[in-house]
Amino acid sequence: MVNNLQLFSDNPLRVIYKPSELLGMFTSYLSKQDVNLKIIYLRGIYLKNPKHDPRWIYRYDILRDEDTQTEITLQISQKLCSELKDGNLVTVGGVLGKRVQNNSHIQLMLVVSRVEIVQEQVVGEEEQKRIEFRRKKVQIGYKNIDGVLEQKLFIDERPRVALVFAATSITMSDFNAGINAAKSAIDFYEQRVNFANTKELTALLKELDQQKYDVIALVRGGGGGIESLDELDVLDMIVEMQTPIIAAIGHVEEKLFIKQIVDKEAPTPNGLGQYFSDLVETVSEKKNKSRAVLTEQIKKQFQEQLIAAQRQNKELQEKLVFLTKAQEAAQRLHKEQVEVAHRQNQELQKKLVGISKANEAAQKLHKEQVEVAHKQNQELQKKLAGISKANEDIQKAHVEQINKQSKEFNASLKMMQEINDNLNKSLQKLTAQNTQATKDLNEAKERARELQRQLEGARLKTNKGCLSMVVTIITILGVACYAICLIL
Question: pTM for the full model?
Answer without folding.
Answer: 0.45
